[in-house]
């Protein structure tokens, strides 16, 4: 009975589920759907996807997958085998229910087919040349102290970065300014305990964690978040064990992720991150943790309060690991 009810309720989504070449179907808010095909998202309006419809759909998915309902983080499968992740309040805003459906690949490919399509042609050389040129350009901009040019290239070339600063240095405000340089074609996800990050890009999801609620801790939300098909991840501030989850996520296919840390120097920022990872239960040595963090975070922007009344803040230092 639950299978038939779920299949009937999925009618408004079936045109997208059946369409060839679609890899991901994302719902960030009622009546709006983002569909990925060939790596590009397109926005569609579907009037049937009202909040009540999305809530009923979550109930049917839970029943079909033998999961409890309501549940803020619900994962499972559709009757036709597609993987689905659903997120509800209090893990997101009360007026939203978030979905991501991973569609089946209908192509039956052989390696010879990839070769004929030119997938392997000069791949390594092209990628390596682009990488080295970007690093060289960043190094030049860094040496020239062209901070805007450096930040613009770093963000658009998807380098992970941390904004560090003491109390009242405007770290989140600076982070929000950096986010404006990200292309509007990307899918962005924020994870916060309080809404502070302000993203203008259309394909955006805002998630809320609470370390006092075992259902929606930062680590559980990060795990669910990776099933939402993010291009980049953002936290307003790293303060504790969520640092471990953030670094793992940034290092597992989500380059260009950003956050802030309360510290007075870039080296102090790295020390804070080491301490947070130790808090999260890491038994690695401090030296190994330091090396691991620096391999993931090549850039730290150090802010300080300005003595000039006409300035909001000063960039005191930029740490850049060009290796």
From TrEMBL:
The keyword Nucleotide-binding applies. Belongs to the GSP E family. Part of the Type IV secretion system. It comes from Candidatus Rickettsiella viridis. Signal peptide: none annotated. PANTHER family: TWITCHING MOTILITY PROTEIN PILT, TYPE IV PILUS RETRACTATION ATPASE PILT. One of its GO terms (cellular component) is type IV secretion system complex. One of its GO terms (molecular function) is ATP binding. This is Type IV secretion system protein. Keywords: ATP-binding, Nucleotide-binding. The gene is virB11. SUPFAM superfamilies: P-loop containing nucleoside triphosphate hydrolases. One of its GO terms (biological process) is secretion by the type IV secretion system. Residues 135-296 form the Bacterial type II secretion system protein E domain. It holds the Pfam family T2SSE.
């Amino acid at each position: 009975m639950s299978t038939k009810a779920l299949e009937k309720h999925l009618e408004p989504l079936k045109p997208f589920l059946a369409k060839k070449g679609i890899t991901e179907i994302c719902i960030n808010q009622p009546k709006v759907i983002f569909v990925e095909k060939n790596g590009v998202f397109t926005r569609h309006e579907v009037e049937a996807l009202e909040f009540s419809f999305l809530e009923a759909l979550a109930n049917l998915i839970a029943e079909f997958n033998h999961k409890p309902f309501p549940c803020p983080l619900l994962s499972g499968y559709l009757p036709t085998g597609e993987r689905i992740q659903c997120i509800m309040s209090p893990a997101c805003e009360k007026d939203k229910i978030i979905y991501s459906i991973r569609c089946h690949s209908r192509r039956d490919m052989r390696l010879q087919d990839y070769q004929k399509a030119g997938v392997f042609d000069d791949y390594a050389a092209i990628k390596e040349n682009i990488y080295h040129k970007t690093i060289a350009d960043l190094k030049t901009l860094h040496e020239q102290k062209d901070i805007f040019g450096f930040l613009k290239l770093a963000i658009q070339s998807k380098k992970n970065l941390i904004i560090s600063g003491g109390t009242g240095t405007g770290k989140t405000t600076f982070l929000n300014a950096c986010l404006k340089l990200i292309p509007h074609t990307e899918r962005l996800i924020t994870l916060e305990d309080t809404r502070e990050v302000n993203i203008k890009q259309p394909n955006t999801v805002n998630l809320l964690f609470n370390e006092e609620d075992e259902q929606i801790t930062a680590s559980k939300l990060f795990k669910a978040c990776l099933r939402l098909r993010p291009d980049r991840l953002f936290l307003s501030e790293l303060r504790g064990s969520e640092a471990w989850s953030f670094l793992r996520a940034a290092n597992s296919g989500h380059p260009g992720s950003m956050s802030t840390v309360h510290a007075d120097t870039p080296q102090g920022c790295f020390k804070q991150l080491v301490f947070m990872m130790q808090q999260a239960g890491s038994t690695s040595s401090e030296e190994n943790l330091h090396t691991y963090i620096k391999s993931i975070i090549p850039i730290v922007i150090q802010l300080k309060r300005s003595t000039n009344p006409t300035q909001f803040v000063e960039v005191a230092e930029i740490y850049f690991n060009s290796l």
